[in-house]
Design goal:
Elements lengths: L1 H13 L4 H13 L4 E4 L16 E4 L6 E4 L5 E5 L4 H9 L17 H6 L7 H4 L2 H4 E7 L5 E4 L13 H4 L8 E8 L6 E9 L2 H14 L4 E8 H10 L14 E9 L2 H17 L5 E4 L3 H12 L1 H8 L1 E8 L5 H12 L4 E7 L4 E8 L4 H7 L2 H8 L24 H14 L13 H4 L2
Parallel strand pairs: 1-2
Antiparallel strand pairs: 3-4, 4-7, 5-6, 5-7, 8-10, 8-11, 9-10, 9-13, 12-14, 13-14
Helix pairs in contact: 9-12
Length: 436
């Protein structure tokens, strides 16, 4: 009965949720050492927003108000529960754009995006959220509300504390408001779907695009023939843009600028030169928004296709560009005919999505994948989580990307800000070390 009263009280607090309400909940939970899990759109891939045992879930979805937009600077202030696609739609009418674009944009929330330092398709143009976020409002474990909701770009007054919470996955505090710099929405967008004979050509094409497309380059994505085959097999209505051949690699290059004639001529000259030099085997430029959408459908539909195919082991890795695809090839050798190994991702910022597809989950297959994939990534000084965080699934694997001294400092910060360890337990940091 007492437990039911506590739950009813928490539910009442959550109605009309805001930072003050979140503060009351955390004060209550902290005083009784009740663990909490902050939750947004729940679209993460590493279990960062799901309870492990009996934690209280604080879902911030009702905190979805847009507070302000400076129409001169493009600085947007909003609550953490705003859905990413809704923010982008709002900005469309105001002449701006969100600096990140994700496949889960219809469900994910900006608070979760910031908490995981999400990357996505526009990273090559606008960089990470560490650069785009100007300020945050965060509720600490003890209920203290930290007002760091600045709306200025330059501030050198002491420690930049907001950076602690970007990518911390709710383990140091719960983000309730966000101030973010949104770039102008430019009028000219072009998208090319290209074929390359090998991964070296993809790398060379990336290098050349950065030099010759420069200021208009907004996305550079790649996928291999296994990824293309998966999409064509399992997604209805998807067609090969470059029939009838199936090529080894495919690249999507997007440009965004303010002068349609200039931008198109620049892209076409680049593609012609790349074709003549042998970097491109074939290619097509989208002629309208529908064709552009069909091209993006291929790249963004890989995850959906994999789910329809059966079981999938997913890895989100950052690696030196010249080494990225070596890992895919090594995994194919290790697994042989037992699995399909797909390589795709954000080549423009050296982010590989290594996906391994099998009819059903198999411990013998997993034993061939892990810890090899983490050891190989670590040996090349890569990151075992490029843009999805560590969550529950990778918390005990942080040492593959961070030194013992770095992890120890992270643990010290965690214990300082959350001494009762109520915030998102079992996530980000190795549980055994945090509890010592």
């Amino acid at each position: 009965m007492l437990l039911k009263m506590k739950i009813d009280w928490l539910l009442q607090i959550l109605i009309g949720c805001g930072s003050i309400k979140v503060s009351e909940i955390l004060k209550y939970c902290n005083s009784r050492c009740l663990a909490v899990v902050p939750q947004g759109g729940n679209t993460g891939l590493v279990g960062g927003s799901v309870p492990v045992f009996d934690e209280v879930i604080i879902n911030i979805g009702s905190m979805n108000n847009i507070i302000s937009l400076d129409k001169v600077s493009g600085i947007l202030v909003c609550e953490a529960g705003c859905i990413l696609e809704n923010l982008d739609s709002f900005l469309l009418n105001e002449g701006f754009i969100m600096p990140l674009d994700l496949g889960a944009k219809g469900s994910c929330q900006i608070g979760g995006n910031v908490s995981t330092n999400a990357g996505g398709l526009r990273y090559v143009r606008y960089g990470s959220l560490h650069g785009s976020i100007l300020g945050l409002e965060v509720v600490q474990a003890n209920g203290t509300v930290l007002d760091m909701l600045g709306t200025i770009r330059k501030d050198s007054t002491g420690y930049d504390l907001k950076q602690l919470f970007i990518g911390s996955e709710g383990s140091l505090g719960i983000i309730t408001k966000v101030s973010i710099l949104t770039p102008p929405r430019l009028s000219s967008t072009n998208l090319a779907f290209l074929a390359c004979k090998d991964f070296f050509s993809c790398q060379k094409l990336l290098s050349e695009s950065k030099r010759k497309l420069g200021e208009v380059l907004s996305a550079f994505e790649f996928l291999d023939n296994q990824s293309m085959d998966m999409v064509l097999t399992y997604l209805d209505g998807v067609r090969n843009p470059l029939p009838p051949s199936v090529h080894n690699f495919y690249v999507l290059i997007e440009t965004t600028g303010s002068n349609e004639t200039h931008d198109k001529e620049k892209l076409e000259a680049f593609l012609l030169h790349s074709m003549e030099s042998g970097l491109i085997s074939d290619g097509v430029v989208a002629q309208d928004i529908n064709q552009a959408s069909s091209f993006w459908r291929i790249r963004e539909g890989i995850t959906e296709a994999l789910m329809k195919a059966g079981a999938v082991y997913k890895y989100d890795l950052s690696l030196p560009v010249e080494k990225m695809y070596n890992l895919v090839e090594k995994m194919r050798i290790r697994l042989g005919q037992r699995a399909k190994v797909l390589g795709y991702g954000h080549l423009g910022d050296a982010n590989l999505h290594l996906n391994i597809s099998t009819p059903e989950y198999d411990d013998t297959v997993l034993a061939q994948i892990e810890p090899f994939v983490y050891e190989w990534t670590s040996s090349h000084r890569g990151s075992i989580s490029a843009e999805h965080g560590l969550g529950l699934m990778k918390a005990n694997k942080i040492h593959y990307s961070k030194s013992p001294e770095t992890v120890e400092l992270m643990i010290s910060i965690k214990k300082l800000l959350d001494p009762n360890r109520i915030l998102n337990p079992y996530k980000v940091l190795p549980h055994s070390l945090v509890q010592e």
